[in-house]
Amino acid sequence: MKEKYRSVIRQKIIDAQAQALPQLTLRDVWRPLVPNKALAIIGIRQAGKSSFMWQLLAEYVQQGIPREGLLYFSFEDERLLGMQAEDLELVLEEFYQLNPQWRD
What we know:
38% helix; globular; mainly alpha
C-alpha cells in the first residue's frame, strides 16, 4: 500500500522545493524556542497557520538555511487519501533520497 503514495510524495516534495516563498504580511507572533524539539502550530480553520509556516520558512532562509533544506508539505491532496500514520515515514524517506545531505 505504501508504494501507492511514494511517487506522489516524491513529486510533491520536488514541486514544493521549487515553489517560491510567498510574499506575506509579517505578523509579530511569539513562539517558544525549545532546542531540538518540533514546533506544533495548532488553531482553528482559517486562523493563519499555513501563512505562519511560510513566514517561518522565510525567516530560516534569511538566516542562511538553503531552501532545499526546508519543506512545506501539504497533505491536502486527494491522491493521498487513505494514508495512515504509519505511511508518514514515506515523506522523510523520499525527502532524504532527494536531499541526502540533510539527513543529519
